[in-house]
Specification:
Elements: H1 2-27, E1 32-36, H2 39-48, H3 52-59, E2 65-69, E3 73-82, E4 85-92, E5 99-101
Antiparallel strand pairs: 1-2, 1-5, 3-4, 4-5
Length: 103
């Protein structure tokens, strides 16, 4: 009887621990960002998909745009202001030229 009680508690503790280990992985934000070869392409993407998640989802289907890892983004190479909004063309590891990244 006592042994069964300890087995149940151990099982519940194991399930709780597994849930705690899995939950942070699901809650982590996406570490990618939408980026395009030209500022015009980026503006068209952000106009069609104003929020980050939608832009990121559509980036792969737009010509000249793609999703890149934030860790691959480097220094600013060019800056532009359009309608008071800042845009930056950033160096990206493995790319021959800078990419315009969603602000």
């Amino acid at each position: 009887m006592i042994e069964r009680h300890f087995r149940r508690r151990a099982c519940r503790a194991g399930i709780g621990l597994a849930a705690m280990l899995v939950t942070p992985a699901l809650a982590q934000p996406d570490d990618r960002v939408a980026a395009c070869d030209t500022l015009v392409s980026l503006r068209l993407l952000t106009t069609a998909a104003p929020d980050r998640a939608a832009a990121l989802a559509q980036a792969g289907s737009r010509p000249g745009c793609k999703a890149i890892r934030r860790a691959d983004v480097g220094a600013v190479e060019h800056r532009a202001m359009i309608g008071g909004a800042p845009f930056e063309c950033l160096a990206v590891k493995g790319e021959p030229a800078c990419l315009w990244v969603q602000p």
